[in-house]
User: Fold this.
Amino acid sequence: MAARTNGNPTPPTGPAAGSEAEAMVCYTVNHAARLLGQAISHRLAALGVTTGQLPTLLALYATDGQTQSELARRTGVEQPTMAVNLRRMERDGLITRTPDPADARRALVHLTDKARTVQTDVQALRSGIDAEALTGFTHEEHTQLAHLLDRLVHNLQHLTDHPGTTP
Assistant:
């Protein structure tokens, strides 16, 4: 990823060096995502939470007592992935599952006291990482980056949902 020193971009190194501009975007976004993931992962580990558990925790912090399928939809993961994630979260003492009184075939996922205890720290960590990652960005740049990333995600979702077509 190109670093900035005194406002001047540093030439890229690694696989993207000398590539076309389009390849640079892919490399840079991927590199930024990896670095962001590493920063979050290290800090979450201190709280007894993994990066993979974060979206589920945030969804449960917003609305406790959801089903596995509701959580899968809200977090955008496949049902089998959510099932594995919930088993690990249960093992780690972050959630419990209880039968749904409205439909005994389903279970409701609830946060444990342990998960509630780290809620403030998890949410502060999330916003703190954003603030650190955006150090030196103006409010307008932050807004523009968020908009551009939303468009990028939309385009990439379209590519995976409809291979071979353009958005």
Summary: The longest strand covers residues 103-111.
